[in-house]
Write a structure and sequence with these properties.
Distance between the termini of chain A: 45 Å
Oligomer: homodimer
Number of helices of chain A: 20
Largest interface: A-B, 99 and 99 residues
Helix content of chain A: 55-70%
C-alpha cells in the first residue's frame, strides 16, 4: 500500500537555502513577528504528520467509497468527518489567514509547502478546505467589515466552509453567459435564483455552515461579463451574534459522477430566492472573484505537484523492490533472481523526469508564493508593484504547467509499475485520475495559456516578461551562477524573448495567433522558468556539496538531467509556435 | 450520449486509394479468389453496423457494471452474452482465420479496419475475441494437426475463446523468471501447475470452452527464457469428436480491480495439475508465443487508434454544438449567444492533433497489415522476406506509437469538453481510462522501444531500417510526390537515418545507451513513419482534389497541420537522444 512521507528535506532546501525565506520574513514588518525559519520548520514537521498520518490513510478508501447524495443530503466517505474535526483543531485552515480575523498570518511561501503535502496525501479531502481559504481571501479583500467580522473567524477556524459558485450548465469558460439572478430586497440583502454546476463541496457533512460565493446578475446588469456581481449566500442564515438561523433556500440537486477526486462532492446547487449579500461593488463581481480564482489557480497548480510527488514516492519504492530483468551492463544484484527495476535506464528516465519536474515545480511554486508575500507585505510600493506584475504573469504558468507536468509525472509513475500500475490497489491509477481534473478546473489550461499570452504578455507589450527576464539575467551574471547551467539558461531565455518579440510583432496582424499558439508558448515559458529554478538550485547545491554529498549531489545530477533531457523540449515548441495560426484555420467546421 | 460511426470513407480511402488493396489482392493467389475491393467494402459496411449498433451501446453500461466474480464464476455485464451470441453468428471471430480450419481467410489489411471499429465501439468487449484470434494464429503456426483440427474451427466460430497466460506475480516484463511447472504424463499430455495473473478473459460466461495458452517449464528446462515451453490447457477437456468432457483442474481465483476496461475480466488463473498439451517444441515456447504476441501487439496498438477515433468523434460533435466565447477575429455566429467551441484556434489545435494522429495511425496500421499479408502470401520469397523484416521493424512502433498518441488524443478529446470531460456520463473520461492500458499490456511501451532499437535496428546493423528508408526515398523520387511535403519528409528521414547511424556507432561503446534513449527513438521513428503516411495520403488527395474538395481538401489541410505542427516534435526528440545515457546514470539508487 502506498505511503506518503512529506519531502521535508527538499522543502527546507527550497525555503531556506534557495529563497532565504527567514531573511525575507525578517525584513517584512507584517511577518517579522509572526514567523522565522525555526517556526516554519516546526510547522512543516507538524504538517507532515497530519498529512501522512491523518489524511493519506483515507485517500484510497475515499476513492473507493466516494461521496454520497441522498435527497439533498451529502455525506463524505467513512473517516472524513472525524479526520476533518481533528484537522481543524490544528488550526490549519486559517494558516495563511488574516490575523485581524483569527487567521494565523503565515506567509504564502510556507503555505504552499503545506498545500503540496495536502494534495499529495489526499486531493479530495484537501479541496474541502482549499475552497475555504480562497473564499476567505475574496471576503477579506472585498466584503464589508460587518460580513468579515461575522464570517471570517468561523471560516478560518474551519467550523464553516466556503465554496465558489461560478459555472452554470451553459456557461463554463464563458462566464459572461451566466444567468443567475439577484433581486434587491428591502433589507439590503438580495434574493438569489439560479442553478450552478461543478460546485466543489457545495454540500457536505463536515461543517456546520457553508458559505457560497455566488456570481449572479442584478436586474439592471449590462450583458456579458461586465454585468456580473458577487454574493455571499450562506447555507444557514447567520444572526448578528454568529448563531445559525434558518436554512437558506438553496439545495444540492445531485452529485456528479466523475473520473476521479471521487471523495470530493461535486454538486449541482440550486438557489431559489436564497438570501445573499453583495460583496464588493455591483457589476464588479468577476474582478472580486478573481481574488479567489487567482489563489485557487496557484493552489490547483500545486495539486499537480502534490499528486506527482505522491506518485514519485510510490514509484521509487516499487522500482527499488521489484526484481525484473538485468541492467544493460550486466547484473547489479547477481545474488538475486533479477535486478531491481531502478537499474534500468528507461525506468530511471521516467523517475528522473518525475523528480526534475516535481522539484522544479516545488521551487517555482515557492518562488511565486514569495512574490505573493512581497506583493502583500513589502514596504516599498515599487517592490509591491513589481511582485504583483510577476504574480499576474506567472500564475497561469503555475496553474497550467504544474498540472500538465503533473499528469505527465503521474503517467510515468503508473507506467513503471507495468500492469500493477493499472490495478486500483496500488494507488498509482488513482493519482492519474485525481490529477487529471487539475488541468480542467479553475480555468482550463487552454484558458490559462490565453491569459498568459494575451493578457499578461501581449496586452502589456511584454513589460512583465521583461521584469522576469531581467531577474534571470541578473542571476546569470552573478559569480555564483553555476556552469554550464547558467549559459544554457541564458540561451533558453533568449529563445523565450525572441519568440515573445516575434509574437508581439505578429499578434497585431493576426487576431487568431494568440489562441493558436498560446499553449505551446505557455509550455515553452514553463520550461524556461524551471530552468531558472534548476540553475538557482544548482548554485546552492554546488556551494553546499561538500557538506552533504548525497543530497546536493542528487540535486546537481537532477539539474543535469533537466538541462539535457527536458529543457530541449523547447526546440519543438519554438518551431510549432513559429508555424503560426494558418495550419489551424484551413479546415471548415464541417470538414472535421 | 456518445455515438460511434465507423469512418468508412476514410477506411476506403486508405485501403483502395492509398494502398490499392484490390490490385494487391488480385496478384496474391491465396487472396485473389477470396476478396476484392467490392467484397471488402461490403464487409466493412456490415462491420460498421455491428460495431455501432450492437457493441457501442454496451460500452458505457459495461464500464459502469464491470465484470463480476463469484466463487470462481465470472459473469460479464448485462447485454454482453446476447451481444456475443449475435456477434459470433456473423462469423467475425474467424474473419482473417485460416480457411483450412473454418476461417474466412480475409487479408489483414481488411481485418485491421475492422479491429479499429471494434476498439472504437467497445474495447472491453473486443478483448474477449481479440485474444481468440491471436491464440488461433499461434495454434495454426505451431500446434499438431490433431490439435488444430480439434480446436481451430471452434475458436474461429467464436464458440470457444482463447487466452494467453504469460505473466506471473513475480514475472512480468521478465518472463525468464516464470515458475509454472509442466510434468509429462504417461498419455503424452502434461500436468500444468502454477498461478498466472492479468489473464484477459481467463474466465467468462460468453463461450462454452476457454482455450488457455500457457507458458511453463518442463522438469529438465534450462533456467531463464530459454527453458519455457508452450501448452494448450482447455477449461473443459475435449473428446476426439470435439465434445466437451470433464472440467480441467484450473480456476479463476479473482478478478483485478482496474482503472478501465472494466467489462473485460482480468483474471488470476490457478492451474493445479491441469491437463495440457505441448505446442511446438520443448523449451521453444517463448518463440511460439511470439507468433501470438506480435499479432496482439498490432491489435493492441489499434486499440490506441480506435479509442482515439471514438474520442475524436465525440469531441467534434461537442465542439460544434457547445456555444462558448467568441472567435478571436469576431463573432462567427452573431445570432447566437456565443460561437461554437470549434471556432477557437486552441480547440482546433486539439481536434486537428487528434485527427492527424488518428488518420496517420489508420494509414500506418494498414501499411503494416499490408506487409503482414505480403509476408504470408507473396509468391516471391524475397518479397516475403522483405515484408517480414518490415513487420518485425514496425510492429513495436505500431504498438507503442499508436497507444502513446492514442492516450494523447483521448486526453485532448476530454479536454475540449472542459469540466464535462471529467464527468462519466459523457464517455470521454472512460476512453482515457480504457486506452491507458494499451501502453502497458502486451509488453509495455518501454519494452517495445527496447525491442525496436535493440533488436530491430542495432542488432541487424540497421538493415531493416534501410529497407524502410529505401522505400520512402523511392516514394519521394516519384513525380507524384507532393510538394512541399515530400521534401519535408526527406529531411525528417535523413534525421532518422543520421540519429540511427550515431546510435549504431555509439551502442557498442555504451551498453546503457539503447535502454536510455529507446523511447525517444521510437517516437522519432513514429513521427517519421507518419510523415511518410501523410505524404502518401497527400499525393492521392492532390490527384483527387477536383472530384471531392470536401474530403481531399481536408486531407491536404490535415497533412499541412501534421507537417507544420506535429512533425517538429522530432527536433526535441533528436536533441534528447543525443544527450545519451550519462544523465540517467549519475544518481545512485538511494539518491532518488
Amino acid at each position: 500500500m502506498p505511503e506518503y512521507h512529506a519531502p521535508l528535506r527538499d522543502m527546507r532546501f527550497v525555503l531556506h537555502e534557495v529563497f532565504a525565506a527567514g531573511q525575507l520574513w525578517a525584513r517584512l514588518p507584517a511577518l517579522a513577528g509572526t514567523v522565522d525559519a525555526e517556526t516554519a520548520d516546526a510547522i512543516l514537521e507538524e504538517a507532515a504528520k497530519v498529512t501522512s498520518e491523518l489524511l493519506a490513510p483515507l485517500n484510497r478508501s475515499g476513492d473507493e467509497e466516494g461521496a454520497h447524495w441522498d435527497n439533498g443530503v451529502v455525506s463524505t466517505p467513512a473517516g472524513f468527518r472525524e479526520a476533518y474535526a481533528t484537522y481543524i483543531e490544528g488550526g490549519w485552515v486559517g494558516l495563511a489567514g488574516n490575523p485581524a480575523y483569527g487567521g494565523l498570518g503565515m506567509p504564502k511561501m510556507l503555505a504552499v509547502q503545506f498545500e503540496e503535502m495536502l494534495y499529495s496525501a489526499n486531493a479530495s479531502f484537501t479541496l474541502y478546505s482549499a475552497l475555504t481559504s480562497g473564499c476567505c481571501l475574496a471576503l477579506d479583500a472585498h466584503a464589508s467589515e460587518e460580513l468579515k467580522q461575522l464570517y471570517l473567524p468561523r471560516l478560518y477556524s474551519g467550523e464553516w466552509a466556503g465554496t465558489m459558485c461560478l459555472t452554470e450548465a451553459h456557461a463554463g469558460s464563458d462566464l459572461g453567459l451566466l444567468r443567475t439572478r439577484a433581486e434587491p430586497q428591502a433589507d439590503g440583502s438580495y434574493a438569489i435564483s439560479g442553478s450552478k454546476i461543478f460546485i466543489t463541496g457545495g454540500e457536505q457533512d463536515l461543517t456546520a455552515n457553508i458559505v457560497h460565493l455566488v456570481l449572479g446578475r442584478l436586474p439592471d446588469a449590462p450583458a456579458g461579463s461586465k454585468g456580473i456581481s458577487l454574493f455571499l449566500v450562506p447555507k444557514f442564515l447567520v444572526g448578528s451574534d454568529g448563531a445559525l438561523g434558518t436554512r437558506n433556500s438553496l439545495s444540492c440537486g445531485s452529485l456528479e459522477h466523475k473520473m476521479g477526486i471521487k471523495a470530493s462532492a461535486t454538486c449541482v446547487m440550486n438557489f431559489d430566492d436564497a438570501t445573499g449579500y453583495l460583496i464588493g461593488e455591483p457589476h464588479k463581481g468577476l474582478a472580486a472573484m478573481f481574488t479567489m480564482m487567482n489563489y485557487e489557480r496557484l493552489s490547483i497548480g500545486i495539486q499537480g505537484i502534490g499528486c506527482a510527488e505522491a506518485s514519485y514516492q510510490n514509484a521509487v519504492a516499487y522500482t527499488r523492490e521489484r526484481l525484473q530483468g538485468r541492467a544493460p551492463g550486466g547484473a547489479q544484484a547477481p545474488q538475486k533472481s533479477a535486478d531491481p527495476l531502478i537499474v534500468h535506464p528507461d525506468v530511471r528516465r521516467m523517475l528522473l523526469t518525475m523528480k526534475a519536474l516535481t522539484e522544479g515545480g516545488r521551487a517555482f511554486s515557492t518562488y511565486v508564493a514569495q512574490q505573493l508575500d512581497l506583493a502583500k507585505h513589502a514596504e516599498d510600493a515599487d517592490e509591491r508593484r513589481r511582485a504583483e506584475a510577476l504574480v499576474a504573469l506567472l500564475t497561469p504558468i503555475a496553474k497550467a504547467f504544474f498540472t500538465d507536468t503533473g499528469l505527465e509525472s503521474c503517467i510515468h509513475g503508473q507506467q513503471v509499475f507495468g500492469g500493477h500500475g493499472y490495478i486500483r490497489e496500488w494507488g498509482q491509477e488513482q493519482l492519474v485520475r485525481d490529477v487529471r481534473i487539475a488541468q480542467i478546473y479553475e480555468g482550463t489550461n487552454g484558458i490559462q495559456a490565453l491569459d498568459l499570452l494575451g493578457r499578461k504578455v501581449v496586452a502589456n507589450d511584454g513589460a512583465a516578461l521583461r521584469l522576469f527576464a531581467e531577474e534571470i539575467r541578473a542571476f546569470v551574471d552573478t559569480p555564483a551562477a553555476p556552469r554550464p547551467f547558467a549559459s544554457e539558461l541564458l540561451t533558453a531565455l533568449e529563445r523565450l524573448e525572441s519568440i515573445s518579440a516575434w509574437l508581439l510583432e505578429q499578434a497585431g496582424k493576426d487576431p487568431a495567433l494568440v489562441s493558436a499558439v498560446a499553449v505551446e508558448y505557455l509550455n515553452l515559458f514553463g520550461y524556461v522558468a524551471y530552468a531558472y529554478m534548476w540553475a538557482h538550485m544548482a548554485a546552492v547545491a554546488q556551494a553546499g556539496r561538500a557538506s552533504d554529498e548525497a543530497f546536493y549531489g542528487a540535486k546537481l545530477s537532477t539539474a543535469q538531467f533537466y538541462f539535457s533531457k527536458l529543457l530541449p523540449r523547447i526546440h519543438s515548441l519554438d518551431a510549432v509556435i513559429r508555424a503560426g495560426s494558418a495550419p489551424l484555420l484551413e479546415l471548415a467546421d464541417d470538414q472535421f
